[in-house]
Amino acid sequence: MAAEVLTRKLRLLAAISVSVFAMVGAAVMAQETGSGPEIEAGTDTGQPVFIMPRSGPFAPQSIAIPNARVIARWAESGHSDATAEAFRHWDADGAIEPVCSVCHSSVGFRSFYGLDGSAPGVPESPVPIGGVVDCETCHNPNIGTIAEVSLPSGVMHPVAGVEAACVTCHSGRASGADVSKATTDLPEDEVSGDLRFINPHYFLGASISLGGYGQVGYQYPGKTYSGRFLHAKPVATCLSCHDPHNLKIDETTCLTCHTNGNPEEIRISRFSFDGSGDATKGIHDDIVANADLLMKTIKEYAANVLGTPLAYDGTRYPYFFADANGDGVIDEAEGRPVAYNAWTPRLLKATFNWKAVAADPGAFAHNPPYVLELLYDSIEDLSGPLGVDMASRGLLR
Ligand code: HEC
Ligand code: HEC
Ligand code: HEC
Ligand code: HEC
Ligand code: HEC
């Protein structure tokens, strides 16, 4: 076991060395063309500098190479976590499915945009396992050639610089358009054996921030939706708030405009959205309260309108399971959980929106108006057949 961990660390270290080599090359090129980040003193000879410690521990901070400070920050982030499910999911298959590799391996990402010299498009063959989001993902000298990113809704979104990378990988994989397509012409409350849960995928902050313009959520007909959340100048891109290497939020950035630096406690709106009347807590809490109410309403609709109770388990795909006797325990058949099997169009729309909001832990900062609208409309849509007067809930859209 210890040996396996050590081997993995050594492999990661080797990956970093290769990446730094690529990075130095990329930065030198970027400097020559006058764009891109400046590299630190000592690396402008064009020679890769590797000073490897003779023995462990292999803490990134202890590796005396010019980019050590940046590497140490990157090593704190999920982007470098070679043990994460997001990078190990394909281990048993021995290679990453091409369509998945675009976001789950830098090799796939570069291939998709032709940054590696290949023809642009989804890689033609499976990509080797073991990749992370390496330095060259963002520091590729040709990153600036990516002019637009195709969102799951089909909308082509113009991008500039490194944000092209963030938006590509953080937009999710399905949108309201997929939900509309699956449910066209089907009666709202009739169970259809053809329907299955549609998963928007994970960490889709870029799509959420683009709101009604990016159209990631299921947007109910006849309703209008807030567009891109522009926040306030100079907050403009992902990097206005996220450090590009450790990905963390620096509270002092927020404090230049907000009176509270804790993102979850920040609030501008003077109105209460969740019916609590409390407009002092962070907008984060209104969103969590309405998301919880939506989940409760989803379960009530399944049990009372469809007569087939549903249970949710966020740790197991496909998340929504059968619970025939309504005791809150997921049904099992042959030792395996039974996926929920009484989908109606109305249920699919609401669960998709609930999951899209839940899949972006930063939704409250990325686009609070849009997610509040999606949650409100989903609750309202389920309330009709449940016979609950929406006004009695006291929510604000
Ligand atoms: C090649 C795809 C890819 C690119 C490009 C990418 N990310 Fe990620 N990002 C991921 C994956 C995959 C994860 C999840 C990693 C994990 O679970 O360890 C992630 C995780 C994150 C997280 C969660 C925090 C953490 O430490 O895990 C944040 C925040 C984030 N990315 C922001 C960004 C920003 C900002 C950019 C652009 C500067 C960006 N990402 C570019 C794929 C990417
Ligand atoms: C548009 C980019 C994108 C594509 C394409 C993509 N993913 Fe992901 N996926 C992500 C991001 C970002 C995360 C990180 C979220 C996290 O770690 O929770 C993620 C997370 C995951 C996870 C980990 C979930 C968890 O609970 O930690 C699995 C499994 C996964 N994806 C499977 C797939 C499969 C299978 C495919 C191809 C059929 C695929 N992904 C295609 C962006 C993508
Ligand atoms: C997810 C995208 C991303 C990844 C991955 C990434 N960088 Fe960066 N890096 C950036 C961006 C964006 C900037 C510019 C930051 C700015 O202008 O404030 C930057 C700046 C830099 C700088 C100069 C500024 C500084 O903070 O010192 C260096 C050096 C650097 N990166 C090295 C690396 C190395 C080495 C790696 C891999 C260990 C890496 N980067 C991985 C996006 C990334
Ligand atoms: C106004 C500041 C702001 C901007 C701009 C912003 N984010 Fe975030 N983001 C946050 C906050 C706050 C969180 C909540 C988690 C935290 O505090 O780390 C978050 C969370 C995330 C997460 C989940 C991290 C986790 O560990 O759960 C991802 C992924 C992410 N953002 C990606 C992006 C991408 C991609 C962009 C650009 C399209 C972006 N963000 C723009 C503030 C911002
Ligand atoms: C340049 C000033 C500025 C900076 C810096 C800034 N914000 Fe904001 N923020 C605003 C303004 C103005 C609004 C209201 C925008 C609107 O409603 O259109 C806002 C709205 C918000 C909201 C929604 C509040 C509500 O009640 O709807 C959240 C959450 C938020 N900001 C989080 C953050 C976080 C987290 C950071 C730091 C990473 C940050 N902001 C940095 C100016 C700023």
UniProtKB/TrEMBL annotation:
Signal keyword on record: yes
InterPro entries linked: Multihaem_cyt_sf
Keywords: Signal
Domain of life: Bacteria
Entries under Gene3D superfamilies matching the protein: Flavocytochrome C3, Chain A
Signal sequence coordinates: 1-30
Protein name, as recorded: Cytochrome C
Protein's organism: Sinisalibacter aestuarii
